[in-house]
Design goal:
Elements lengths: L1 H8 L4 H13 L6 E2 H8 L3 H13 L3 E4 L5 E4 L1 H14 L5 E8 L3 E8 L9 E8 L9 H4 L11 H19 L11 E2 L2 E2 L1
Antiparallel strand pairs: 1-3, 2-3, 4-5, 5-6, 6-8, 7-8
Helix pairs in contact: 1-5, 2-3, 2-5
Protein backbone atom coordinates (compact mmCIF):
# COMPACT_ATOMS: atom_id res chain seq x y z
CA UNK A 1 0.00 0.00 0.00
CA UNK A 2 1.51 3.31 1.04
CA UNK A 3 4.85 1.63 1.78
CA UNK A 4 5.24 1.18 -1.99
CA UNK A 5 4.43 4.86 -2.55
CA UNK A 6 6.97 5.91 0.08
CA UNK A 7 9.62 3.68 -1.48
CA UNK A 8 9.33 5.33 -4.90
CA UNK A 9 8.52 8.88 -3.71
CA UNK A 10 12.15 9.99 -3.51
CA UNK A 11 12.82 8.76 -7.07
CA UNK A 12 10.05 10.83 -8.66
CA UNK A 13 10.73 14.21 -10.24
CA UNK A 14 8.56 17.11 -11.38
CA UNK A 15 7.77 15.47 -14.75
CA UNK A 16 6.50 12.33 -13.01
CA UNK A 17 4.30 14.46 -10.76
CA UNK A 18 3.02 16.35 -13.82
CA UNK A 19 2.04 13.04 -15.44
CA UNK A 20 0.29 11.85 -12.27
CA UNK A 21 -1.54 15.19 -12.03
CA UNK A 22 -2.48 14.88 -15.71
CA UNK A 23 -4.02 11.46 -15.08
CA UNK A 24 -5.82 12.78 -12.00
CA UNK A 25 -7.21 15.72 -13.99
CA UNK A 26 -8.12 13.54 -16.96
CA UNK A 27 -10.07 11.14 -14.74
CA UNK A 28 -12.66 13.91 -14.28
CA UNK A 29 -13.63 13.36 -17.92
CA UNK A 30 -12.44 9.84 -18.75
CA UNK A 31 -12.59 6.52 -16.95
CA UNK A 32 -9.27 5.71 -18.65
CA UNK A 33 -7.25 8.79 -19.62
CA UNK A 34 -6.08 8.46 -23.26
CA UNK A 35 -2.40 8.87 -24.10
CA UNK A 36 -3.27 11.81 -26.40
CA UNK A 37 -4.85 13.72 -23.49
CA UNK A 38 -1.81 13.10 -21.32
CA UNK A 39 0.42 14.29 -24.13
CA UNK A 40 -1.58 17.55 -24.34
CA UNK A 41 -1.52 18.06 -20.58
CA UNK A 42 2.14 17.26 -19.90
CA UNK A 43 3.59 18.70 -23.13
CA UNK A 44 6.27 16.04 -22.97
CA UNK A 45 7.59 14.44 -26.16
CA UNK A 46 5.70 11.21 -26.82
CA UNK A 47 8.78 9.00 -26.28
CA UNK A 48 9.59 10.58 -22.89
CA UNK A 49 5.96 10.39 -21.81
CA UNK A 50 5.80 6.72 -22.77
CA UNK A 51 9.05 5.95 -20.91
CA UNK A 52 7.88 7.70 -17.74
CA UNK A 53 4.44 6.07 -17.88
CA UNK A 54 6.10 2.64 -18.05
CA UNK A 55 8.07 3.56 -14.92
CA UNK A 56 4.89 4.69 -13.12
CA UNK A 57 3.08 1.48 -14.14
CA UNK A 58 6.06 -0.64 -13.01
CA UNK A 59 6.01 1.14 -9.63
CA UNK A 60 2.25 0.50 -9.33
CA UNK A 61 1.30 4.18 -9.17
CA UNK A 62 -0.89 3.97 -12.30
CA UNK A 63 -2.57 1.20 -14.26
CA UNK A 64 -2.66 0.90 -18.06
CA UNK A 65 -5.23 -0.65 -20.40
CA UNK A 66 -4.85 -1.17 -24.14
CA UNK A 67 -8.43 -2.01 -25.16
CA UNK A 68 -10.51 -0.32 -26.57
CA UNK A 69 -7.77 2.35 -26.53
CA UNK A 70 -4.58 2.92 -24.57
CA UNK A 71 -5.54 4.65 -21.34
CA UNK A 72 -4.36 5.17 -17.79
CA UNK A 73 -5.88 5.41 -14.31
CA UNK A 74 -4.22 6.46 -11.08
CA UNK A 75 -3.96 3.97 -8.22
CA UNK A 76 -4.34 5.02 -4.58
CA UNK A 77 -0.53 4.80 -4.33
CA UNK A 78 -0.21 7.41 -7.09
CA UNK A 79 -2.71 9.58 -5.26
CA UNK A 80 -0.69 9.09 -2.07
CA UNK A 81 2.50 10.45 -3.66
CA UNK A 82 0.61 13.47 -5.05
CA UNK A 83 -0.74 14.28 -1.57
CA UNK A 84 2.66 13.71 0.08
CA UNK A 85 4.35 15.93 -2.51
CA UNK A 86 1.87 18.73 -1.77
CA UNK A 87 2.43 18.37 1.99
CA UNK A 88 6.22 18.46 1.58
CA UNK A 89 6.07 21.51 -0.73
CA UNK A 90 3.81 23.35 1.74
CA UNK A 91 6.08 22.30 4.64
CA UNK A 92 3.16 20.55 6.33
CA UNK A 93 5.38 17.52 6.95
CA UNK A 94 9.11 16.91 6.87
CA UNK A 95 9.14 13.16 7.54
CA UNK A 96 6.75 10.23 7.66
CA UNK A 97 7.02 7.32 10.04
CA UNK A 98 5.31 4.05 10.80
CA UNK A 99 1.74 2.99 10.36
CA UNK A 100 -0.24 3.83 13.49
CA UNK A 101 -3.60 2.33 12.60
CA UNK A 102 -5.80 0.85 9.90
CA UNK A 103 -9.54 1.32 9.75
CA UNK A 104 -12.20 0.11 7.36
CA UNK A 105 -11.65 3.05 5.06
CA UNK A 106 -8.44 4.74 6.17
CA UNK A 107 -4.79 4.23 7.02
CA UNK A 108 -3.01 6.42 9.58
CA UNK A 109 0.74 7.14 9.68
CA UNK A 110 2.84 9.13 12.10
CA UNK A 111 4.71 12.11 10.67
CA UNK A 112 6.73 15.15 11.68
CA UNK A 113 5.63 18.76 11.26
CA UNK A 114 8.74 20.95 10.92
CA UNK A 115 9.15 23.67 13.57
CA UNK A 116 8.20 27.20 12.57
CA UNK A 117 11.17 29.26 11.34
CA UNK A 118 13.39 26.22 12.04
CA UNK A 119 13.30 27.17 15.72
CA UNK A 120 12.18 24.72 18.35
CA UNK A 121 11.26 21.10 18.28
CA UNK A 122 9.51 19.32 15.42
CA UNK A 123 5.87 18.53 16.17
CA UNK A 124 4.67 14.92 15.93
CA UNK A 125 1.49 14.64 13.84
CA UNK A 126 -0.43 11.92 12.04
CA UNK A 127 -1.55 11.68 8.43
CA UNK A 128 -4.85 9.99 7.70
CA UNK A 129 -5.19 8.62 4.17
CA UNK A 130 -8.82 7.94 3.23
CA UNK A 131 -9.43 4.71 1.32
CA UNK A 132 -13.11 4.75 0.38
CA UNK A 133 -14.20 1.52 -1.23
CA UNK A 134 -11.50 -0.57 0.39
CA UNK A 135 -14.26 -2.67 1.85
CA UNK A 136 -17.22 -3.52 -0.34
CA UNK A 137 -20.37 -1.47 0.09
CA UNK A 138 -23.25 -2.22 -2.23
CA UNK A 139 -25.19 0.87 -1.19
CA UNK A 140 -22.26 3.29 -0.95
CA UNK A 141 -24.16 6.27 -2.38
CA UNK A 142 -27.01 5.82 0.09
CA UNK A 143 -24.73 6.09 3.13
CA UNK A 144 -22.27 8.69 1.80
CA UNK A 145 -23.84 12.16 1.77
CA UNK A 146 -20.70 13.73 0.28
CA UNK A 147 -21.27 11.86 -3.01
CA UNK A 148 -24.51 13.74 -3.59
CA UNK A 149 -26.46 12.88 -6.72
CA UNK A 150 -23.46 11.79 -8.78
CA UNK A 151 -24.17 8.88 -11.11
CA UNK A 152 -20.51 8.00 -11.71
CA UNK A 153 -17.61 8.41 -9.32
CA UNK A 154 -14.26 6.79 -8.71
CA UNK A 155 -13.20 5.52 -5.30
CA UNK A 156 -10.34 7.99 -5.37
CA UNK A 157 -12.76 10.87 -5.89
CA UNK A 158 -15.03 9.53 -3.13
CA UNK A 159 -11.99 9.42 -0.82
CA UNK A 160 -11.11 13.00 -1.71
CA UNK A 161 -14.63 14.18 -0.87
CA UNK A 162 -14.62 12.24 2.42
CA UNK A 163 -11.30 13.81 3.45
CA UNK A 164 -12.52 17.30 2.51
CA UNK A 165 -15.69 16.82 4.52
CA UNK A 166 -13.80 15.48 7.56
CA UNK A 167 -11.28 18.35 7.41
CA UNK A 168 -14.06 20.95 7.17
CA UNK A 169 -15.84 19.44 10.18
CA UNK A 170 -12.61 19.25 12.20
CA UNK A 171 -11.69 22.89 11.50
CA UNK A 172 -15.20 23.93 12.56
CA UNK A 173 -15.10 21.95 15.80
CA UNK A 174 -11.49 22.57 16.86
CA UNK A 175 -10.68 23.86 19.58
CA UNK A 176 -14.20 23.91 21.12
CA UNK A 177 -14.35 20.11 20.99
CA UNK A 178 -11.57 17.80 22.13
CA UNK A 179 -10.38 16.50 18.75
CA UNK A 180 -6.95 16.44 17.07
CA UNK A 181 -5.91 19.79 15.61
CA UNK A 182 -6.24 19.76 11.80
CA UNK A 183 -3.11 21.26 10.21
CA UNK A 184 -3.57 20.66 6.48
CA UNK A 185 -5.33 18.51 3.95
CA UNK A 186 -4.73 17.60 0.32
CA UNK A 187 -6.68 15.27 -1.90
CA UNK A 188 -7.60 12.25 0.26
CA UNK A 189 -5.20 12.93 3.15
CA UNK A 190 -5.40 15.00 6.34
CA UNK A 191 -2.50 16.10 8.60
Amino acid sequence: MIDEALRVFKDLDSKDFRILTGIETGMKHFEWVPMEELNKYTRLPFEKLEYRLKKLVRNKLVVRVTQPYEGFQIYFEGYDVLALNAFVKRKSISAIGDEVGVGKESVIYEAILPPELSIGEPVPVVIKFHREGRTSFKQIKRVREHLGEREHFSWIYASRLAAQREYDIMTTLYPEVSIPKPFDHNRHAIV
